[in-house]
Amino acid sequence: MTLLTFRAGASALRHIQRDGLRPEHIHTVFGASGAAKWLTIYGLDKAIFSHWLAAGEQPVTLFGTSVGAFKLAAACHTDAAAGLDALAHAYIHQRYPKGVTPDEIEREFAKILQVVMGDDKIDQILSHPKLRFGCGAVRCHGSLASDNTRRQALACSRAAARNLRGRDALQRKLDRIVFHDPRSHFPIQAHDGYRTESIALNRDNITPALKASGSIPVYMHGVKDIAGAGAGVYRDGGLLDYHPVPGNFWGQPNGTPSMDASARDEGLILYPHFYPHCKVGWFDKFLPWRKADPALLDQALLIYPTPAFYALTELGRNPDRKDFATFAKDDAERVRLWTQVAEASHRLGEEFLELADKDQLAAQVQPLTR
Predict the structure, then answer these.
(1) In this predicted model, what pLDDT tens digit does every residue of 53-85 receive, in sequence order?
(2) How far apart are CA 223 and CA 226, in angstroms?
(3) Could you read off the pLDDT of 130-183 as tens digits, one per residue?
(4) For residue 80, what are the CA distances in angstroms to 26, 138, 252?
(5) What's the pTM?
(6) Residue 52, CB half-sphere, CA atoms under 13 Å: how many?
(7) Which helix (H) or strand (E) holds 153?
(8) Pairing between strand 60-65 and 26-31?
(9) Helical H runs in 187-274?
């Protein structure tokens, strides 16, 4: 029974067909937003970071938004496995009663932030010998920057309507802010028309940056005036880059999504995911037809579960933030079902490592389709 699917963009596929797939071929790892959906691939991430990538010698750039940023920060702990274990446990055991307020969410969210950034974790992340952490947030304009939740909700409704006209419809409402490890070159070249700024991380701004990356409008408070990024209200990076798509802003020359041969040979973007496709922005997730063009994932290798994986679980799907409401009267049942998915996710990691040990990873890779 196969539990993993491997699909690669055109340049990544040529690279893998020519050179195979080994840890030293990876120069970047991307992490998607999706809240509790991450638990589906927690075991896969754990295998990749604590075993497979650990065998490589080259620096690896990391970039994620929302929970994708949190998991990548946890992977930068000295003990990556322990960091991801702690994050998964904290995520599963959140408690959000019906009618919860932003202040109450803030207190619960602080527990997760503490797991990832508390004690000496900031120094571990900023000084990791190989991993170079980065995360995305957005600087909001207009009512999206308001402290008033009703105004925020109305702004989100209007943004969703504008987004129907096309992805570029929100360019005056959101700026992309990329926070990055100061030791590495983050190849930021925005091609989707959104104002994009790169800000070096340090001890003063890394925690606010990570917090902003996961601060959902309406439900959570925005983060104000992050050091180095300037004045403004910063919110969830997933608003703009829900499942971050490299071709929209990541180092493509001349604004084109496909890479030339020299750039392609720099390495691959590894993208563990819980979906077989990428939804570019948060508002796109409501539009079944709005999926990222494979050309925008030219260098990427997407790895995601097969339907056979979900058949192993009672939930039969990805955990979802809506489960807090679905199981509002029986939160223990939600915890049980999410825990079961998280435990099953280790099967994904085991399959990945088994294929790697047998040098069969490259043989599993198929072309990325829409």
Answers:
(1) 998 889 999 999 999 999 999 999 999 999 999
(2) 7
(3) 999 999 999 999 999 999 999 999 999 999 999 999 988 999 999 999 999 999
(4) 17, 27, 30
(5) 0.95
(6) 26
(7) helix 149-163
(8) parallel
(9) 206-213, 246-249, 261-264
